[in-house]
Amino acid sequence: MTETDSGPPGEAGPGEAGLPRHAGLVLAAACVAQAMVVLDVSVVNVALPSIATDLGFAPGSLSWVVNAYTLVFGGLLLLGGRFADFVGHRAAMFLGLVVFGVTSVVGGLAQTPGQLVAARAGQGLAGALLAPLSLAVIMVTFTEGKARARAVGVWAMVAACGSALGVLLGGLLTEWLSWRWVLYVNVPIVAVGLLLAWASVHDRRTTRVRRLDTVGAVLVTVAVTALVNGLIRAGEHGWGTTGVLLSFAVALVAGAAFALWERRTAGPLVRFGVFRARSVWVANLVVLFIGAATVAGFYFASLFLQNVLHYSPLRAGAAFLPFCLGTVVGAMLSGRLTPRLGTRTVLTAGLTLGAIGMLLFGMMHAESTFVGGFLLPSLVASTGVGLCMVANTSLATSGVSADEAGMVSGLVNAARQIGGSIGLAVLTTVAAAGSSASGSGDAVQRLVQGYDRAFLVTAGLCAVAAVLSGLFAPGVAVSRPPGSPGADSVTENAGTVDGTAAPA
Questions:
Q1: Residue 109 above 90 pLDDT?
Q2: Residue 9: strand, helix, or coil
Q3: What's the distance, CA 430 to chain centroid?
Q4: Nearest-CA neighbor of 395 among 411, 371, 372, 379?
């Protein structure tokens, strides 16, 4: 396989251990892009009351400030990953960053609800390109086992910490400046990302990706968008409503049509043969559960702090700082332990810790304190998240060739997004049922009953993922330079993408 580099003139040659000298800048650019995408999912949450007051949102429509981003982001992730492979990583990163910056300014200047929702949809479009791309550029730059593991660890740590930091940043900006700054803050981040991308990210086009599968792109976008829309509506209006059932029906039909088309077309958007590698299908299945558990767990923890313990938005954001600390510790431990103990052991241990942490969250009550009730679950769960996200991301991307880096990155991100949407929709219903079933006459106690039940189900999701990992995850993830012999042989004793045996 050959690649075309069109980076800046005078680009440095390979550095230590076969890595290009700009590898550190590539990692920084990828992390800046990923941080902005993840932050934008949560940074507006704290500002929603101020947005509603200022722009005059009608009752029930305010959720679309969040949903517009989530819907477009989730629906276009697979297309975004393959589009980056098609046009080149350098061009795609520039395009994604510029669109994100422009739509952030438009959103900050919005004078009507429609203008803000449209801007948020534009941010979702840019995020769908940047999220898989940020991981893809790491995969094609860091081709050696330890170097790639460290780089993926940093990327996963940024992804895991982003939501918690988004809540804190949103509280600070809303309280000290105005809600508009939760959008304007992206502008300097975009500027830094553009400088880093210009200095380091090459145009990674390959001879294999000659055209974009337009029909497949339309079908999968319709399928995923309809699925996410149905899940959002189910969380708001219930599972049996006409709009929800219609969305799920569209998702099913479009998904089936996509699967049939991809098996028949040349140059498919998703090459289903990649799932013959055990590392790929296990990692994507596990990340569905991780996404469901972490998104829903974080959501209900935020509600518990504000609705039960009566924290202000700013104080609630600050309460998640230990979660960031635990994630960093878990990521660092994962980098050290995975080479010694193997991917399966570290991933299973991380998911088990996540289950224990969520179980401890489910034991909180109305008289809980931060130190006595919230701190320990935060540290246990976040350490597990750091361990399992790093190990699972490394597993999903091990041995993937450069021309499919965007595709695999899109799959992982789409699985996490869909898992989060499913988890939030289902657990919102679980929490509501738990509150309704409570015999208490106290409104706060009814909330606690519902939140605790949601936490217990979240713990169960982590436990199921731990069992799946323990049973099916390969013991060791093998990372080879893309294009090298056996690069498609992803894991030890796992089979390969092409069905051949992995070389010893």
A1: yes
A2: coil
A3: 23
A4: 411
Residue type at position 148: R
Token representation of residue 449 = 């009953």
Distances (CA, A) of 266 to 213, 405, 422: 8, 18, 32
83-92, 319-328, 374-383, 466-475: which has the highest mean pLDDT? 374-383
| Residue 11 within a domain | no
- Supply φ then ψ for residue 480, to 5 degrees: -115, 155
Instruction: Quote the domain boundaries for residue 249.
Output: 215-267
Q: How many CA atoms lie within 13 A of 405 on its CB side?
A: 29
pTM: 0.72
How does DSSP assign 130-193, residue by residue? HHHHHHHHHHHH--SHHHHHHHHHHHHHHHHHHHHHHHHHHHHHHHHT-TTHHHHTHHHHHHHH
Counting the structural domains of the chain, the total is 3
The verdict on residue 466 lying in a domain is yes
The angle formed by the CA atoms of residues 46, 49 and 54, to the nearest 5 degrees, is 125
**Mean local confidence (pLDDT), 157-179:** 77
Question: Quick one: 389 and 474 in the same domain?
Answer: yes
The residue from 191, 208, 225 where one domain ends is 208
Q: Are residues 243 and 302 in the same domain?
A: no
Residues 238, 316, single domain; the answer is no
Output the six-digit token pair for 440. 């208490």
- Taken as a whole, the chain contains a residue count of 504
H or E element in which residue 206 lies? strand 205-206
Please, what's the largest Cα pairwise distance for the chain? Answer: 72
Based on the domain organization, do 386 and 239 belong to the same domain? no
296 & 357 share domain: yes
> Which tens digit of pLDDT belongs to each residue from 261-317?
878 877 677 777 667 777 778 888 888 888 888 777 777 887 788 788 888 767 877
Domain final residue, candidates 184, 208, 232: 208
Q: Residue 438 to residues 109, 183, 445, 449: CA-CA distances in angstroms?
A: 44, 40, 8, 7
pLDDT at 376: 92
Residue 13 counted as domain residue:
no
The DSSP-derived string for 319-381 is: HTHHHHHHHHHHHHHHHHHHHHH-HHHHHHHHHHHHHHHHHHHTT--TT--IIIIIHHHHHHH
**CB 469 within 8 Å of CB 348:** yes
How far is it, in rounded angstroms, from Cα 402 to Cα 424?
34
Same-domain status, 153 and 230: no
> Are residue 261 and residue 291 in the same domain, yes or no?
no
Together in a domain, 138 and 50: yes
What Cα–Cα distance (Å) separates residue 308 from each residue in 57, 82, 363?
26, 44, 14
* CATH code, domain with 382: 1.20.1250.20
Alpha carbon distance 437, 449 (integer Å):
9
Q: Considering the domain boundaries, does residue 485 fall inside one?
A: yes
What is the rounded CA–CA span in Å between residue 137 and residue 144?
Answer: 14
Whose structure tokens read 């991308």?
197
